[in-house]
Each structure stands twice: as C-alpha cells, then as structure tokens.
TrEMBL record:
PROSITE patterns: SASP_1, SASP_2. GO terms for biological process: DNA topological change. InterPro entries: SASP_alpha/beta-type, SASP_alpha/beta-type_CS, SASP_DNA-binding, SASP_sf_alpha/beta. It comes from the Bacteria. This is Spore protein. Keywords: DNA-binding. It comes from Bacillus cereus. GO terms for molecular function: double-stranded DNA binding. SASP are bound to spore DNA. They are double-stranded DNA-binding proteins that cause DNA to change to an a-like conformation. They protect the DNA backbone from chemical and enzymatic cleavage and are thus involved in dormant spore's high resistance to UV light. PANTHER family: SMALL, ACID-SOLUBLE SPORE PROTEIN A (PTHR36107:SF1). It holds the Pfam family SASP. The keyword Acetylation does not apply. Belongs to the alpha/beta-type SASP family.
C-alpha cells in the first residue's frame, strides 16, 4: 500500500473549506463528477483550474486589484 506523502498544509483558517467549495464549483462548471471512478485527466483539469484561479487571485491582490472567482 502506498504511503501518504502529502505535506501540503493549509496556512489560513477557513481556506480549506473555501478551496473545497471552489473545487466542487469548478467540477460542476466542467461537468466533472469528482471521485475515484473519474479519470485522472478529468480530476486533474479541476486541480489545474483551481491553481490557475488562485494564482490570478494572488496577482490581483498583490497589484491592488479586487480578486474574484
């Protein structure tokens, strides 16, 4: 059995639930049913979009703009 090597830590309280909500919203937009029966490609497209949106939000925040989803 594979050992869980996930070292990612949520550093901001409440961020985990916000990211979970974002994940399911994006999955719905993409028409992806998240879960073990879904292909890695479909699940990965959701994760990639989360990253893309988080980077955009951070860039907007750093430049003084308003972040939006």
């Amino acid at each position: 059995m594979a050992k869980d090597n996930n070292r990612n830590q949520i550093l901001v309280n409440g961020a985990e639930s916000a990211i979970e909500q974002m994940k399911y919203e994006i999955a719905q937009e993409f028409g992806v049913n998240l879960g073990p029966e879904t292909t890695s490609r479909a699940n990965g497209s959701v994760g990639g979009e989360i990253t893309k949106r988080l980077v955009t939000m951070a860039q907007q925040q750093l430049s003084g703009g308003n972040a939006r989803f």
